[in-house]
Automatic annotation (TrEMBL):
It comes from Pedobacter quisquiliarum. This is Oxidoreductase. Residues 11-128 form the Gfo/Idh/MocA-like oxidoreductase N-terminal domain. It comes from the Bacteria. GO terms for molecular function: nucleotide binding; oxidoreductase activity. Gene3D superfamilies: Dihydrodipicolinate Reductase, domain 2, NAD(P)-binding Rossmann-like Domain.
Amino acid sequence: MDETIVDEKPRLGFIGVGWIGRNRLQAVAEQQIGDIRIVSDPNAGYAEEALQYAKGAKVVDSLSELIENDVDGVIIATPSALHASQSIDALAAGKAVFCQKPLGRDAAEVKAVVEKAQEKDVLLSVDFSYRFTNGIVALKSVLDSGELGDIYGVNLVFHNAYGPDKPWYFDPKLAGGGCVMDLGVHLVDLLVWLFNNPEVSDVNSQLFAKGKKIEDIVEQVEDYAVAQLLLNNSIAVQIACSWNLPAGVDAVIEVSIYGTNGGVSFKNVNGSFYDFSTERFHGTSREVISSPGDSWGGKAAMDWVAQLAEKGNKFNPEAFQYLKAAEILDKIYKRK
Ligand SMILES: NC(=O)c1ccc[n+]([C@@H]2O[C@H](COP(=O)([O-])OP(=O)(O)OC[C@H]3O[C@@H](n4cnc5c(N)ncnc54)[C@H](O)[C@@H]3O)[C@@H](O)[C@H]2O)c1
C-alpha cells in the first residue's frame, strides 16, 4: 500500500488566519474535506474567530510548534515575505504545503521552495485561485481545442481600484513588490499554466508609483505597471495591473486570447471582484460560454486537500510552473 496516501481526512494546520487565511479555512471547514487540527496567528482575535469554523482545533504560537503536531499539511496565509521560509520549514518537516501567492518575493526564493518540495518528495501547491474559476476553465478548454487557430495576441489586465488595506502590502521588504507581486502574479501564473511553460523573451516593462515612473522598488512599491513580452517567439502579450487606478469601478480583470480563427475572453462583470463571464469571439460576433455564479475562492485549497487525500503527499512536478512565473516577474521588475 502507498503509505503517503492519507486514508482519513487530511489533518491540517493553518498559519496566518487574517483575511484570506480565514476565508480558506472556512471553505475547507464547510466542505468537510479536511480535519483542521491547529491554528496559529499572532493576532489572538483572528485565531479565536477561526475556531468558530474549526471547533476543537488547538491554537499554537508558532510554525515550529504547529509542525511538531501530527498534521499532514500546512496552509500558509501570512504576509508575503514569510511565505518562502515558512514553506521551506514545513516542507523540510515532510508536511504538504498549500501557500498563498506569491510563493516567494523573487525567483531565487521560489526556486528554493520548489527544490525543497522536490527533495523531500512532498506536495506543494500555491493558491492561484483564478485557475479554478468556471470562466478560466471554459477559456482553457477553447484554447486547448486548437479552434482559435494560430494564437498571436494575449491581453492580461488586473486593476484593483481599491488597493490593499493593510500597511505591510506597501513595504517592499514585507510584500516583495506592489501591484505586480500582488495581482500581476495571478496573470503571469495564468500565462504559464494556459500556455504550458512557454518560452518568454523581449520583456519590456514600466513601473509607476503615485503617478511617477520608478526604476526599482527598493524604497516604494509600484501601484501601476505595464509590460509587454513575447511568448514562444510568436505571441505578443500585454499585461497591465494596478492599485487605486481611477478605473470607475472596483476592479477590471481580463484574460483575452486572439488567434487566426477567433478569440476568447474572460472578464469580470460590472467591476466585480468575484463575478466573471467568458465569451467566444467570432469576428465581430460573440457568444457567452461561461456566466457568473460559481463560488471559486476556496477551490484551489480544496484541490490541494483532494490531491493529498487521493494521490498522497508526493511532489507534483507542475510546481516548477511557479518558478517559471517567478522568473518572468523578475524580468518585469528588471532584477538582475
Ligand atoms: N490567492 C489569492 O487570490 C489571495 C487573495 C488575497 C490575499 N492573498 C495573499 O495572502 C496573504 C495574506 O493576505 P491577507 O490579505 O489575508 O493579509 P492579512 O494581513 O489579513 O493576514 C495575514 C495574517 O498573518 C498573520 N501573521 C503575521 N505574521 C505571522 C507569523 N509569523 N505567523 C503566523 N501568522 C502571522 C497576521 O497576524 C495576519 O492575521 C498575502 O501574501 C496575499 O498576497 C492571496
